[in-house]
């Protein structure tokens, strides 16, 4: 392997270890870790969808109302 690939691999491994330590997932069984990761992905996906659909739509409507008020 090239040196750059090896450095990237070490970097990702180090950050994954830090993630496991910060979330204390290093103490659980592998199947429990998978369940927690799935829940994390689900929660972050729901946050993204909420921000994309509700917040973005609200901001676009407020911008349109402001522009409409300026035209009159």
Automatic annotation (TrEMBL):
It is found in: Endoplasmic reticulum membrane. It holds the Pfam family SPT_ssu-like. It is a multi-pass membrane protein. The chain crosses the membrane at residues 34-60. One of its GO terms (biological process) is sphingolipid metabolic process. The keyword Glycoprotein does not apply. Keywords: Endoplasmic reticulum, Lipid metabolism, Membrane, Sphingolipid metabolism, Transmembrane, Transmembrane helix. GO terms for cellular component: endoplasmic reticulum membrane. This is Serine palmitoyltransferase small subunit B. The lineage of its organism: Eukaryota, Metazoa, Ecdysozoa, Arthropoda, Hexapoda.
